[in-house]
């Protein structure tokens, strides 16, 4: 029996993407599409972003590049040379989707506007994923992951209580998330266009803005302003809010932290449940006192309950133990884990999440994060490690486009590939 | 002018989801033209109440949450007691004429209702079923529950945000409710594409917690490949790519460069900050020019990347003496005109009122909500040439479309509708009805 195929099998994607779009290409590839990453001769600049295998900088050793470019084939092609453009034109005629992250207008300046490309391929979907979109006063502005976290509103919502870090700056969450946000929306728009094409046969052009994707990804911040005129405060390890709220992040005995949400706030039922959880460890303090069945008493003692009793309870145990004990009793709590701790999570192992990925050129296999959703009929699966520079030049230019080996070496000598 | 087609025209979604992640997923399917039928029950509603986003002076009730109103545009609401035999029969009739089912309950809820994937297939063989539970439907912790902040913590996202030797700053909102919603929509569209190509539906078992993990990919590979954990000096490095005085390793912020930080701007208010990043010596030289080539900036120690990384505290202090004299938008304009990477830190107010790019791109357009009046809602961050996404319906009031769906779509009689209100199928018998319910019963 043949191996089950991913839901996007049969689709061909051309990816002309740097750090802004490589994650979208990975998602499409992991879900079964034939993603061909087209890099400039010598390789894409993302190959120079660390960390590197054994900390030795080299374009074939970037772990960042490895992660974001699984399940793709790789070719090199110089689009600024006529011969390179001619080959791209031939590839474009075979593509279902082209994903590009060049500055607005660049691809069109090479003669590859959507209108031109779709003449020979009317079902083509061209997705341009750029920092600000194809129009508007900022469209030619430079950006970076950090810049998007600032302008998109993420930083305005992340930081510290004044008591924890006086005069703290707004804090950008971990790196790469602007690109994730843009890529998620790019993926959605591409899939919507593909679904539409299954019924209409028609392709289209999609203009995705990373700035807009980031501006959309701050939960209720926009609604708080639009409906109530509120601008929100940054708080340590918990939600932004119009006025200070109770802590939800507590230091555990092992020096790591626990996120302990009191869903529905402090009320008699929640205090009873908290007391029952802590009683198991002899740490309920005075929470079993009947006076706490009065909401007014709870309100007057909120700081005692949260900052003393709950904080002391968590401080007496390792974070993982608090996490599991609380979840088993119905509390929506979690341990604040490092990536290395996440790798040890048996639940993720139960789901077969960690995947060995072969690197044959190194004769080694490394563990990668795998599928976030389990598809019952068509698997999400890493099909191969990131391509080496020009790894599939011969396969694609010779075997698929019919060039001779001699022609290929001429192209290499003239820096077309 | 003829109306433009919608990408998901004729696609019907039965939406059992609540709170944020699920509704954020179906919001986008709705914007793309699918008919979203939100199944709700006021006694077990989560998402409409409690509301901290009801406008001042407006009564807090099931129809007045501002955040619900933004999160649930493009949907219809059917109030239905799915836990009653009659309600279950009605939802099955609806499922039989639908394409997609989405829910974000904990892992066993739908199965306990008798609506597990096997039963769904009996009702509609090619159904695309997306479950968006916290931990997924398999694995030893499948019964655990999440909200965004818990998924973020457990999956390793929280700890990567903050200053070194301080508690994690984490994420100031439920990033994984937003992003979990993205994955819900992505899974639904991927399953729908596969169905259209093969005729086969499937169950897509999405986990909010698991979806968080690959976003730490480079940090995870640093562990699995290099054996380097993130519990190390100078990590996380705040907004910097590297914390001075600690070993020079990549901190997953892209290239290891300086300057790479947030700087105070004039007049020093809570959100008067700007970020500046120089990816190369050339960009640094441009910044020096923008700052008016002050003497300190031309000294040898800042001339190289290594020097700027090593003397980052001093570098950042100098830059801030300059940045504090300028408004954040003025600073941005000057830097960008010279080819320097800089953008303002923007609050929600800044984005809605002051961001010229979002204004030009019509990111926030008004929509008239029956209980809240005219307010701006957030638009799609992509423009599709043939099938533009649009907010075409305001968020529904609870049960607003019950008659339309029960009579119009399912073909029940008006008497059936009235009987269902009387027997507690469409609204709890003892709960006061909203005026629009009385109207639909006339």
Order of strands across the main sheet of chain A: 3-2-1-4-5-6
Total number of helices of chain A? 18
Name of the CATH superfamily of the largest domain in chain A: Crotonobetainyl-coa:carnitine coa-transferase, domain 1
Low-confidence stretches of chain B: none
Secondary-structure blueprint of this entry?
The complex is a heterodimer of chains A (417) and B (442).
Chain A: E1 12-16, H1 22-30, E2 34-39, H2 63-68, E3 72-76, H3 82-93, E4 97-100, H4 106-109, H5 114-117, E5 125-130, H6 145-151, H7 154-157, H8 177-200, E6 204-209, H9 210-215, H10 221-228, E7 233-235, E8 238-241, E9 249-251, E10 257-260, H11 268-279, H12 295-300, H13 302-315, H14 319-328, E11 333-336, H15 339-342, H16 346-350, E12 354-359, E13 364-369, E14 373-375, H17 393-400, H18 405-413
Parallel strand pairs in A: 1-2, 1-4, 2-3, 4-5, 5-6
Antiparallel strand pairs in A: 7-8, 9-10, 10-11, 12-13
Chain B: E1 12-15, H1 21-31, E2 35-40, H2 66-71, E3 75-79, H3 85-96, E4 100-103, H4 109-112, H5 117-123, E5 128-133, H6 148-155, H7 175-198, E6 202-207, H8 208-212, H9 217-224, E7 260-264, E8 273-277, H10 281-290, H11 305-310, H12 312-323, H13 328-337, E9 341-344, H14 348-354, H15 356-360, E10 364-369, E11 373-378, E12 382-384, H16 402-409, H17 414-422, H18 435-441
Parallel strand pairs in B: 1-2, 1-4, 2-3, 4-5, 5-6
Antiparallel strand pairs in B: 7-8, 8-9, 10-11
Helix pairs in contact in B: 1-7, 6-7
Task: Give a short summary of the structure.
The complex is a heterodimer of chains A (417) and B (442). Chain A has 417 residues and is of the alpha/beta class. Chain A has helices at 22-30, 63-68, 82-93, 106-109, 114-117, 145-151, 154-157, 177-200, 210-215, 221-228, 268-279, 295-300, 302-315, 319-328, 339-342, 346-350, 393-400, 405-413; strands at 12-16, 34-39, 72-76, 97-100, 125-130, 204-209, 233-235, 238-241, 249-251, 257-260, 333-336, 354-359, 364-369, 373-375.
